[in-house]
């Protein structure tokens, strides 16, 4: 009966300690869970950022396409208005004197909201509505119109001269030009669609700025907005942009500027004068609020991980303390502070496993009535 009771006590003690022998395995699983959660959160945030970036590019492309269509329509309208003048002018021009021709041009200038209308013949004759005579013959746009193409010239920082060829029986006899303020075009490219986080300008195929929303110079230099450390993907996008500009195709891509700002660059052809509308938009035009939530998510995740680590640390610390107490209960004699019978047997087994025959001897001593000493009050000893 006594032996059975002793075995039951040992078994119960062993079962109490057994779960703690595998704490390292549980600790490892918990660490794996924390790492998996962190990686999943970061990966999800990265995919969300990429999705927002793609959506931003799509949004910028849609808005700038509409803006370029509006600008192209405005430019085409200028050409159509000049053609309306040209269709009537070629008949009126023949057989009329200078005063009548100027009166004709002034009437159309007022009706079509031109600051000035000028006719320049191939022979060098100039008829204009302005009181101040100016020589427009050598302007690049006028020279193109005298060669049969639509042209544009910049008279000064405030005015643009649009010109078309004047045909008589299929032959170019001169150029008809209308002058309008550049401010009208500047206002048009000052898009309000991106919450003030965009810059637009009109450039030619060489990348030189033709019209900027302000008169501040230099407004935009393409070579200066790209970082010297630009990666190969961006360089490929830039080369593709140059090719698309020549082929009158649109495009959009994201890059990091020299100052570290992430930008979206959109380019759209303006077919009326073979120009290109360039628009720079901050990449966070859509993702600004979302990025705040992503940042908050990272903070919450980091805080949760730190909390888990703290709990884990406290758990390990508490476990070790409890485990030491269990070891004391299981293997330390409460009276002497030395090994009890269980610890002694365990020590013997470990020692004898490695020992050679006859290295050790076991001596069993039994002191009669020693129990009386153990039970005698300590204060009376």
Low-confidence stretches: 1-14, 216-220
What is the radius of gyration computed over CA atoms, rounded to a whole number of angstroms?
Answer: 45 Å
**Total helical elements:** 10
Average pLDDT reading? 78
Distance between the termini: 33 Å
Q: Specify the biggest β-sheet.
A: 5 strands, antiparallel
Number of strands: 10
Strand order of the largest sheet: 2-1-5-4-3
Inertia-based shape: rod-shaped
| Helix/strand/pairing category | alpha+beta
Write the layout of secondary structure elements.
Elements (H helix, E strand, L loop, with lengths): L1 H20 L1 H71 L4 H14 L4 E6 L4 E3 L11 H7 L4 E4 L4 E10 L2 E11 H8 L8 E6 L5 E3 L10 H4 L6 H15 L4 E6 L5 E9 L4 E8 L1 H48 L9 H14 L15 H6 L6
Describe this protein's structure.
There is one protein chain. This protein has helices spanning 2-21, 23-93, 98-111, 140-146, 182-189, 222-225, 232-246, 284-331, 341-354, 370-375, and strands at 116-121, 126-128, 151-154, 159-168, 171-181, 198-203, 209-211, 251-256, 262-270, 275-282. The protein is of the alpha+beta class and 381 residues long. The strands form 2 sheets. A 5-stranded antiparallel sheet has the order 2-1-5-4-3, sandwiched between helices. Residues 1-14 and 216-220 have low confidence and may be disordered.
């Amino acid at each position: 009966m006594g032996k059975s009771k002793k075995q039951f006590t040992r078994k119960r003690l062993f079962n109490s300690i057994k779960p703690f022998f595998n704490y390292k395995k549980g600790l490892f699983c918990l660490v794996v869970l924390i790492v998996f959660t962190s990686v999943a959160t970061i990966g999800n945030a990265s995919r969300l950022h990429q999705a927002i970036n793609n959506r931003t590019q799509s949004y910028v492309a849609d808005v700038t396409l509409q803006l370029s269509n509006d600008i192209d329509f405005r430019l085409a309208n200028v050409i159509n208005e000049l053609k309306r003048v040209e269709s009537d002018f070629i008949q009126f021009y023949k057989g009329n004197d200078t005063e009548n021709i100027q009166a004709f041009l002034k009437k159309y200038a007022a009706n079509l909201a031109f600051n000035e209308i000028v006719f320049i013949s191939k022979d060098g004759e100039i008829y204009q509505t302005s009181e101040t005579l100016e020589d427009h013959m050598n302007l690049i746009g006028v020279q193109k119109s005298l060669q049969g193409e639509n042209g544009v010239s910049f008279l000064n920082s405030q005015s643009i001269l649009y010109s078309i060829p004047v045909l008589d029986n299929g032959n170019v006899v001169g150029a008809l030009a209308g002058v309008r303020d550049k401010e009208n075009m500047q206002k048009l490219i000052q898009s309000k669609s991106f919450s003030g986080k965009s810059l637009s300008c009109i450039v030619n195929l060489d990348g030189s700025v033709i019209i900027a929303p302000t008169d501040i110079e230099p407004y935009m230099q393409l070579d200066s907005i790209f970082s010297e450390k630009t990666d190969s993907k961006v360089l490929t996008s830039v080369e593709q942009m140059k090719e698309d500009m020549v082929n009158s195709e649109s495009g959009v891509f994201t890059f990091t500027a020299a100052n570290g700002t992430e930008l979206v660059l959109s380019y759209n052809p303006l077919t009326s004068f073979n120009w290109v509308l360039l628009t720079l938009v901050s990449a966070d035009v859509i993702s600004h609020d979302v990025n705040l939530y992503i940042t908050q998510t990272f903070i919450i995740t980091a805080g949760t991980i730190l909390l888990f680590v703290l709990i884990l640390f406290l758990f390990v610390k508490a476990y070790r303390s409890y485990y030491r107490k269990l070891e004391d209960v299981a293997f330390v004699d409460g009276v002497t502070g030395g090994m009890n019978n269980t610890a002694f047997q365990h020590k013997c087994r470990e020692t004898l496993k490695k020992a050679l025959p006859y290295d050790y001897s076991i001596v069993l001593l039994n002191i009669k009535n020693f129990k009386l000493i153990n039970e005698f009050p300590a204060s009376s000893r």
